[in-house]
């Protein structure tokens, strides 16, 4: 089976921090299902070799399992988890960070007619597809280099290019090609996404961010929703709440201060939004983080 060797390699080389000696290559392992956790899917290709992974983006729910992959072309706030994993049958996956410049270079080198025609619509910033045998085999050869360290510097870049080519010419080719072109609708939305992420604590007018993206307000709303599954204001709220949870973990004694630091003027509104996002009030997480800190200090 195409995935058998890849599973063995991933199980052997997985590390707690997911990084590997191969630049931009990540290995994921989960020995048990975890509760859904807010995280950010950056610009990445992630292939599941064993288990099932689920995630939510806005009001969209996704699932991908062994032999399927996810492509994210924009930094998106999601809630994700391995739903099928056990110590004897862990969830296993491999990821490759994506760079627009590398994709653009390959697109420009393709010959006339080598690429499928792109559709007129702006693609979503995140999609799931079934991996071809060629893509699985390329990933297997890439991970196999971890057993041959002297070959990494020369061969890894070549195999990465092959993986990108398989993507560009596959089901999600339209997304990848827009991702690699600086003047595409997807790239314009990505610019706005980055601005909101960098300035999440400050209020903004959608008209100003649309201008930054180089779009009319109506086109910006339409394309932003297509890419992120959220409105710009909803996207900002997701980012604020994710940062709030991180800040509470660092300082669980100052809920009101955290609320202000992430941009909320009303602590009660912050508490309501936090409860809807994480299933409980900020005081619950703050208490749990505080107990964890005291236990660590006592140990």
TrEMBL record:
InterPro entries on file: Homeodomain-like_sf, HTH_AraC, HTH_AraC-typ_CS, Tscrpt_reg_HTH_AraC_N
Domain (HTH araC/xylS-type) ranges: 190-288
Q: Which SMART domains match?
A: HTH_ARAC (SM00342)
Region listing for Disordered, in residue ranges: 268-299
A single GO molecular function term of this UniProt record: sequence-specific DNA binding
Q: Where is the composition biased (Basic residues)?
A: 289-299
Q: Which SUPFAM superfamilies does its entry note? A: Homeodomain-like
**Keyword set, alphabetical order:** DNA-binding, Transcription, Transcription regulation
UniProt name for this protein: Shy25-AraC-family transcriptional regulator
């Amino acid at each position: 089976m195409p995935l058998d060797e890849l599973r063995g390699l991933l199980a052997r080389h997985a590390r707690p921090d997911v990084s590997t000696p191969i630049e931009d290559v990540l290995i994921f392992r989960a020995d048990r299902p975890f509760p859904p956790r807010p995280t950010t899917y950056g610009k990445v290709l992630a292939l599941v070799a064993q288990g099932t992974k689920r995630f939510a983006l806005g009001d969209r729910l996704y699932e991908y399992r062994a032999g399927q992959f996810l492509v994210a072309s924009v930094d998106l706030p999601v809630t994700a988890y391995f739903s099928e994993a056990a110590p004897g049958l862990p969830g296993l996956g491999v990821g490759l960070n994506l760079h627009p410049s590398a994709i653009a270079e390959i697109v420009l080198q393709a010959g006339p007619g080598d690429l499928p025609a792109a559709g007129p619509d702006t693609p979503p910033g995140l999609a799931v597809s079934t991996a071809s045998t060629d893509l699985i085999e390329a990933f297997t050869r890439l991970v196999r280099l971890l057993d041959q360290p002297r070959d990494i510097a020369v061969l890894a870049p070549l195999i990465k290019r092959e993986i990108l080519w398989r993507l560009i010419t596959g089901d999600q080719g339209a997304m990848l090609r827009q991702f690699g072109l600086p003047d595409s609708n997807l790239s314009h939305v990505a610019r706005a996404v980055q601005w909101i992420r960098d300035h999440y604590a400050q209020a903004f007018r959608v008209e100003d961010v649309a201008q930054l993206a180089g779009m009319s307000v109506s086109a910006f709303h339409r394309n932003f929703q297509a890419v992120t599954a959220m409105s710009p204001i909803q996207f900002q709220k997701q980012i604020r709440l994710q940062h709030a949870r991180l800040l509470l973990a660092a300082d669980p004694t100052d809920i009101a201060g955290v609320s202000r630091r992430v941009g909320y003027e009303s602590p009660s509104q912050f508490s309501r939004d936090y409860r809807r996002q994480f299933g409980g009030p900020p005081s619950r997480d703050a208490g749990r983080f505080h107990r964890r800190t005291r236990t660590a200090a006592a140990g």
